[in-house]
């Protein structure tokens, strides 16, 4: 452990020495833990990130600056799953990669879900389905089912195809997430194929870039945004074992392709073979899924171009004028809504480190509780008093040489859980509605009839994306219920 003097000198040089303001009053154990925290914090990097973020923000809002304009995504830049022949070819390519054990999944579950108003990790949320399964359970069961489908379609023995699931948590979500998985026996997956890892944190700063203290003996920190994913794939999985990281685990398992997604979308096609096959056939390093944006005010980022590079303009950063612009056909000009489903090659994930320092963090101005340096009292502000710095997961797009975009159907792939019950949009009720509507759609596509008012919840273990329902053809379902097997489905006729 470095000495108090050397830490003090480093923080003085960085103009952040106020973090030692209460040093004389701290107990020995508080002193030790503060020194440890300050030692592990790369304060020079924090200063660099802050300066870059505020400079970029000032430039972006300067009308005289010669920034490249943000342009809508050209139609030619994306392909669509509505092209049935292409989609079935992509599916075959992707499923073959799954069957060879070349596909892994990264889940971003480090967010705190403050808009939802629940303190538990979002993936534990019960959206009120008949089965009361959580979002995590749905995702786990889709992985199980996909493994089975790949085994069946590619003649593999049962239990031999594995899609490892890397679950990114953060300080606020790790413990509860791991406990939830354990409590539910990893939803039937083998614990050795569910790998938890944790994103990093950054100090919360005053508007002038000074580090806030949370208590007299600790710095206030917050997760570094879902773009912390990349650095987290290089960090040790456990503090005691520095040799094992997500990247090393991917390499050890010979995983070549990765699907990354957000925890809050109940319709997410985890390790989607169509998307994986699309990325492979485009020879993309990185690819993104989009859906048509529903309205100018929908809280989604949009895929766009800037200076000839792909980019996402976040909903908090797009101007009202841009968001509302329509083309002559009446469609929104910026309509390629980002649903945070990414394809990566594992090689590309390794390369991110080379350009990460060039990326600019985003500033979120927030109410940050902190210790008043003059009085030592805890202050709970009522309006934004400082900033959290976040990297967004799509900030790598402009640095990607081979990028591809796939448009998918909203009704089949996107219904996010963002807001508290009763909000009327992107809330538990809309998630439940959209998932059950999808199950009805699966049955209808299989040639069955579902009577009006009948609600059937199809377990993902029965069907991943509508496949395997041939036995329902010609049947009329007149009872509501849960179908965890084809026999249980038959009982609902
Ligand atoms: C996100 C996208 C937005 C997209 C929308 C679609 C980002 C930055 N924005 O917005 O472009 O249109 O979803 O639903 O991705 N997370 C972490 N660590 C963090 C913060 C978040 O893992 O530090 C995870 C969350 O657990 C969640 C995901 O990232 O799974 C998205 O976070 P959220 O804050 O809900 O993003 P949105 O603002 O809704």
Automatic annotation (TrEMBL):
Top-rank taxon, per record: Eukaryota
UniProt EC number: 2.7.7.23
InterPro entries: Nucleotide-diphossugar_trans, UDP-sugar_pyrophosphorylase, UDPGP_fam
Reactions catalysed, as given in the entry: N-acetyl-alpha-D-glucosamine 1-phosphate + UTP + H(+) = UDP-N-acetyl-alpha-D-glucosamine + diphosphate
Keywords: Nucleotidyltransferase, Transferase
A family per Pfam: UDPGP
Pathway linked to the protein: Nucleotide-sugar biosynthesis; UDP-N-acetyl-alpha-D-glucosamine biosynthesis; UDP-N-acetyl-alpha-D-glucosamine from N-acetyl-alpha-D-glucosamine 1-phosphate: step 1/1
SUPFAM superfamilies: Nucleotide-diphospho-sugar transferases (SSF53448)
Presence of the UniProt keyword RNA-binding in the record: no
GO molecular function terms noted in the UniProt entry: UDP-N-acetylglucosamine diphosphorylase activity
GO biological process, one term: UDP-N-acetylglucosamine biosynthetic process
Membrane in keyword set: no
Family: Belongs to the UDPGP type 1 family.
Protein name: UDP-N-acetylglucosamine diphosphorylase
Organism per entry: Lentinula detonsa
